[in-house]
Input
Amino acid sequence: APIPDAEPPTADQQREQLARNVTRATHLSQAGLTPAAESFLYGLDLTDVGQFLDYSRRKLLNAPGLGAKTRAELQRRQREWGRLLREAPVSPLTPRGRAEAKEELEQLTDAESAVAGALATGGSAPGPAGALPGAAMRSVSLDTLATILVPEVNNNGSNRDKAETVRLLLRLPDERGELPGIGVWPFQKDVAGRVGPSAPQVSRLLKEERKRWQKHPAVRELRAEILDLLEGLGRVASAAEIADALAVRRGTQLAEREQRRSLALAAVRAVVEVEQLEPENAQFQHQANRKATEESLGAGLLALDVREADEETGRPADPPDTPTAPGLLEYAMRLGRKADALAELDTLPTATTVLGELTALTPPPGTLDWDERRLVELAAAASANAGATPRLEIYPRDLSLVRALRLTQAGLVRLTPGLREGLQPGLTPEAVHERVRARFPELVLPDGRGGHTHDLPTGPALTRALRDAGFDLKLATHEDGRTLRYLPTRMDSASSYVTTRAGRHSTDVGAVTRYSDDPTLAGAVRAEEQLTASARRDGYRVLTVRDGLSRQAVEQLGRTDRTGAGVVSVTALFLDALHALVPPGTKPTWETLLKADAAEPGPRQEFPQARFDRAPGGPRVLGELHGAPGADAETRAGTETRAGTGTLAGTGTGTGTGPLLLTDAQAFARYDAMGVLGRLADLARRGGRGLWLLVPQGDPAREPRLGTVAVPFQSAMGEWIELPDSWVNNDHRSRAGEQLTEGDTK
Output
């Protein structure tokens, strides 16, 4: 008997297929429902999918005769078909939005009544243990909260001006989904004049609304949630950060980022207004950021104040070393000013520089439980125009797109060997956006209307920006006819393609490529390509090599036919600096210093690394980075002589046409002088001669460390290059020679 082409679909599979293809007009008999569910809906006089979706969820769940299995099926279909067929909501303040909000509150009220009834009769409450009336209000969506905060217009329209005033003050979208054209945290004077009430009338109206909001259980639970969030975020946070947390916790049906944040910020604004009703009992303070150039920063900061014990809730008093809200806000604003200064630098400050500048500011009295990341995040949040990268760098939020593309190398395209141009995967515009957003998450661009937008450009605008950033790319359609992606304007046959500001650089080491079947050879070629590309540029690179192979690696890196690096021993420079501190015939003697160096870490930390740039040898390194090898000829001789006594004899000259290669760098970590390394790296990133740091370690594939101290680098800029054993041993070059010889013989 012939084998059938495929097994016939099961009844469940047939129903799922029908359910995926419904419209609002589809009859329930053709919608993929089970007979039980279909029969139940007929009993409610519902005959098509549209009627089913419009039916009240509360009435559906409370309808008699609905079993658990059928209820679960109907709820699932409501969710699926709702996402598939419902029009995207534009605002919760539409009649439909208010009806859905009313239904949500009724369901929560029913649930609370069930809990209260069970507790009153001595039974156990349904749901999680400890669930009490009022707790369910923390699940109220932001859409429903908006309908609570903005009063509904009466049938006769007598309170229309009042409702519009509250909506504008909270900056909520109107029934068409449009946001008010005022600041993200409007003043009362911003609202007065746009509708009927004058400024004094707006003030009186707001006072009435504060009292109404204060009495609503949903707003009381919202306030408690915000207090919990502040405590978890180190007692101070931006209003936008609190709003984003609420948007994740509470949810909203609105899809646009700006609209979602506006609903969440309205909830925060309402709680801030309620807190001002009784200033003497306020548990947190708010400070607006009126100088902010980007809207999310303009909402300002919230800081938790020192709280006394609460007998009603059982919450203990805050510890005596808790900082006050005014102290936290004043400190945050100082951090913000420092972040703005860092953002205005010509070069992007590294994490080392950022942390050094921020930690130099005096914190308020009390104990702060902030890690480095939190410190940088708050500095950016309190600034006028600064953002923080995931690597704790500070950048201007209005950073130009061209510079952002260049810093992230977002236009690098990898070609697949052996594939013709039409089948190359290339680089999609979405991938370019992801690279930029991963580094600069809060980047804003001019929107052409005098404002800013978070949306990155596509099409010709993105292509022009990529070319201005040095990436000579064209936008082409894949042979599948659906995918637009970027490819090099002129295709090369090399195994890799890297665009830079100076043009294209490709490396093809004989017949061996980074796509070699031998992973060790592929790794060697990859390192060769990275080194060749980096040797032609300025900037900073960290090279990791296996312990025991440092000498061979330095020899290869110093060859003029490879990278032509000039080698300088850091240990030799530090020894010169130490000798300069102990002139002959003075105390402490050189022997005393050596004994202190061999003792516990404490005495070693007295090494004055702050004077490194003035000590013999230090200016020489700075001169080399500036591209002036003879800048310190007087100290060059002493350094070169002493370098011969280091672990890498004869490699302390620093000469060469390529980058400056620092070896024997353990002194940076040993003498707590990583800040010196950070300053040298910053200098190299600004232009001139490149700076490379060789880091020997047990496993070169692990992130670089000098002893137990992590070496800072920027991965997005390709600053870490792993040198595998196969590269040090030149396996890729010798194999290429063998293959070439075999080819000649044939």
Summary: Residues 11-83 form one domain. The first strand starts at residue 236 and ends at 238.
